[in-house]
Design a protein that fits this description.
Largest sheet: 6 strands, mixed
Distance between the termini: 16 Å
Shape: elongated
Cofactor: Zn(2+)
Helix content: 25-40%
Number of strands: 16
Organism: Bacillus thermotolerans (Quasibacillus thermotolerans)
Number of helices: 11
CATH class of the largest domain: Alpha Beta
GO molecular function: hydrolase activity; metal ion binding
Radius of gyration: 23 Å
Strand order of the largest sheet: 1-2-6-3-7-14
Structural class: alpha/beta
Protein name: Acetylornithine deacetylase/Succinyl-diaminopimelate desuccinylase
CATH topology of the largest domain: Aminopeptidase
CATH superfamily of the largest domain: Zn peptidases
CATH architecture of the largest domain: 3-Layer(aba) Sandwich
Order of helices and strands: HHHEEEHEEHEHEEEHEEHEHEHEEEH
Strand content: 15-25%
InterPro entries: ArgE/DapE_CS (IPR001261), Bact_exopeptidase_dim_dom (IPR036264), Pept_M20_glutamate_carboxypep (IPR017150), Peptidase_M20 (IPR002933), Peptidase_M20_dimer (IPR011650), Peptidase_M20A (IPR050072)
């Protein structure tokens, strides 16, 4: 199995180039569907069952199993969408410098697509029954919250014993065992417009009200406990000489556990309900879209298996936690032992210039994934 994958290195890089040079922004349905069609073709070529879940606005999702009838116990999740706009691949195409591959989405997470395919190829080549113990979801909207794919992921998670989320690996052979929960809230304030020079006293400033609320929101931060609230965008007013009748803020929230998520949500609603400037009205929308991926005793046991498998391959696997969200949150919230960041190693995801994947790790992590699937199956 190891030699098979090592001998496919050039072939794997060729496929990676093809994927990276295909734009697949979350809102570019045509581009994402090109990626999903390419992957569908490649998995069907090795005899796996592929079901296409068609979407009207976002790209289509793929659900892949060894056979239609197989009842796998391992769920794997990867996303096909990227954050880069249409045309980015033409402007900045795939390139290789030394042992590093560069290009839009190469690390987050098109190298993972190649990894999963060639791990499956290796299992099939070795006639391993473990290929029938894997249920793969390629979704199209992870970068924008997995709104349409969350039900598919949760349905696929039913009855699973393990979840392997193939986000990019972390430097020095890291995998992810904890992730923060992610929330997004929109706060909209209404006031009353008036001429700021002629009769400002009859106006009610929505911006003034929002300014009080922003200060209160920022005071909710507790970095030592892993809680962060960031008012990242604000907008308001109609002209400089008009008392602003409206103002809006977008709020990003990160938490480590479910209790924090509940408490922060309550606190944000309280800020919205408080009136600092008489005559204003505030509306709040949004929620904690992704629950935290909390480390459990069972996920620790799964990490131990990953670490032991890596050790057999000469890899020194270690665990890390991160503030970024991923689809791992959905399976972890269902109580399924979950490991994230099992993909090839790289850095600077979402960067317009520096994002890369280590091609040596593409091979190593593909071997690790195939071996891990076999071990979990046994």
């Amino acid at each position: 199995m190891e030699n098979f994958i090592k001998n496919k290195r050039d072939e794997m890089i060729d496929l990676l180039e093809q994927l990276v040079n295909t734009d697949s922004n979350s809102y570019d349905k045509e581009g994402v569907d090109k990626v999903s069609s390419l992957l569908q073709e490649r998995f069907e070529e090795i005899g796996m069952y592929v079901k296409v879940h068609r979407e009207a606005e976002t790209g289509n999702h793929l659900e892949i199993k060894g056979t239609r009838e197989s009842e796998p116990k391992i769920l794997m999740i990867a996303h096909m969408d990227t954050v880069f706009p249409k045309g980015e691949a033409e402007r900045r195409p795939f390139s290789v410098i030394g042992d590093k591959a560069y290009g839009p989405g190469v690390n987050d997470e098109k190298a993972s697509h190649v990894q999963i395919l060639y791990a499956m190829k290796a299992l099939k080549e070795s006639k391993s029954p473990a290929i029938n113990n894997v249920h793969i979801i390629f979704n199209s909207d992870e970068e924008i919250g997995s709104t349409t794919s969350k039900p598919l992921i949760e349905e696929a998670a039913a009855g699973k014993e393990y979840s392997l989320v193939v986000e990019c690996g972390r430097p020095n052979d890291g995998v992810v065992t904890e992730r923060k929960g992610v929330g997004h809230f929109d706060m909209s304030v209404k006031g009353k417009s008036a001429h700021s020079g002629v009769e400002p006293q009859i106006g009610v400033s929505a911006i003034e009200e929002l300014a009080h609320k922003v200060i209160r929101l920022q005071q909710l931060n507790d970095y030592s406990q892993g809680v962060s609230i960031n008012v990242g965008l604000i907008d308001g007013g109609t002209s400089v000489n008009t008392v602003p009748p409206d103002a809006e803020a977008e709020i990003d929230v990160r938490v480590k556990n479910k209790d924090q998520a509940m408490n922060i949500t309550k606190a944000i609603h309280e800020v919205a309900d408080d009136e600092f400037v008489d005559g204003t009205k505030t509306e709040l929308s949004g929620n904690m879209g992704r629950p935290p991926m909390e480390k459990t005793e069972e996920s620790q046991k799964l990490f131990d298996v990953v670490q032991e498998t890596g050790k057999e391959l000469g890899l020194d696997i270690h665990e890390v936690s991160t503030g970024g969200g991923s689809d791992a949150a959905f399976t972890a919230a269902k109580g399924i032992p979950t490991i994230d960041g099992i993909g090839p190693i790289g850095e600077f995801s979402h960067s317009e210039t520096d994002e890369f994947t280590d091609l040596n790790s593409l091979v190593d992590r593909t071997i690790l994934l195939a071996k891990l699937i076999e071990r979990l199956t046994k």
